[in-house]
Design a protein that fits this description.
With 126 residues, this protein is an all-alpha fold. 60% of the residues lie in helices and 0% in strands. It contains 7 helices and no strands. It has helices at residues 11-17, 22-33, 37-55, 60-66, 72-83, 87-97, 103-109. Helix 1 crosses helix 2 and helix 3 crosses helix 6. The longest helix is centred in the middle third of the chain and has 19 residues, at 37-55. The chain is elongated, with a radius of gyration of 15 Å. The two termini are 27 Å apart.
């Protein structure tokens, strides 16, 4: 999922590959990673979207489809849930707030927060 984040998630195919039922795979995955396969995939997609939005050369819609999301509404909702601000606001703020920082620092401070831990009010990029 980390490498193929832009492809559709097929839990059934993943489960067949490791000789488990889809339900059992999902339970085991959640026990190991703390979130369902779908949530994990969406987190990877949002991480990549954050990188693309910081670059600034793609629109929010283009980023949405580039990371494998089929619905702009779902993408925007999940992005806001994880990052604490809508993708359009993030795009504007990120371009001015992170200039000159080393890429490792940018990656660390902009990593999305899982499990709905992002603050709703007063969310900041750095």
């Amino acid at each position: 999922m980390d490498r193929e984040y832009a492809r559709p998630l097929d839990v059934e195919a993943l489960a067949r590959g490791v000789h488990l039922s889809a339900g059992h795979l999902s339970r085991q995955f959640k026990a190991a990673y703390g979130e369902s396969p779908y949530q994990y995939l969406m987190t990877r997609r949002i991480e990549r979207a954050m990188t693309l939005l910081r670059r600034g050369d793609l629109s929010v819609t283009e980023v949405c489809f580039a990371v494998g999301c089929a619905s702009l509404g779902t993408f925007s909702s999940r992005f806001t849930e994880l990052v604490g601000m809508p993708p359009s606001v993030y795009r504007r703020a990120a371009r001015s707030g992170l200039e000159g920082l080393p890429s490792l620092v940018v990656k660390t401070v902009t990593r999305p927060v899982r499990n709905r831990e992002a603050t709703r009010a007063g969310a900041r990029i750095a």
